[in-house]
Each structure stands twice: as C-alpha cells, then as structure tokens.
Amino acid sequence: MVQKAQRVKISMVQKAQRVKISMVQKVQRVKISMVQKVQRIKISMVQKVQRIKISMVQKVQRIKISMVQKVQRIKILMVQKAPRVKISMVQKAPRVKISMVQKAQRVKISMVQKAQRVKISMIQKVPVLKMDQNFPLKQNKCYFNLKKIL
Prior knowledge:
single chain, mainly beta, 7-stranded parallel sheet, 3% helix
C-alpha cells in the first residue's frame, strides 16, 4: 500500500529476514540502503512524510518506525549491533535523527509531538536509552545529550 510516493528505494539488502514497508501515503522519498544481516525492518503507517532515510544498518535485530505523521525528516544512519531501535508515534516534528548508534541495547523514542528537533548521536555501549511521553522537554528545543541523561 504505497500510494502517491515519489520515490521508494531499497538497495543492497543482504541476509535480511524481513524488510516490510506498509501503508506509505504521500511520501516524497523512502530510502533504505546497505542493510546487512538484519532480522526485521518495519515501516508502517507513514503519512505525509517528506523523507525517511535508513542507511548503513549492520547486524541489527529490529528497527521499527510506526505511526509517523506529518514529519519532514527521519534519518537513521550507521546503526551497528543494536538489538532494538524504535521510533513510534512521532507527530508534526520537523526532524528526528539517530546517528552512529553502536552496541546499544535499546534506543526508543515514543510519542514525540510538535517538537522542533530530536537528535540522538554517537551512542556507544548504552544499555537503555528511552525517551517517552514523560521526558522533560522544552517547548521549542528538544535537543538532549547523553551527559544530562547518564
């Protein structure tokens, strides 16, 4: 159910058990490239999104993006040896970025609404990093770094 999408590209998927893109509507670009030894990648119910990019994902057990509405950019790049990366119910956020996640047990972003920017970068060997509805966010800035969390 990919409807009114300008570009949907999946390239270099090797030894992946399941790659699933379902119910993508009015999306300009969905790109998944260089996915190796991944058990499951799931993108479901993405509506009115300009760009979703997942690149250089190696040895990841699960990447899940669900119920993303009216988001300008979601970017996940260089995720290595992480058992779970999950982004769910992101609404009206201009940018969500997860980059260079290495050997992390769980990265979870859930129920991000009307946030200007969510950025997680350079996560190495973190057991649990969870950001949910009760996370203390400022109104316009939702930048946070690991020094404040850990």
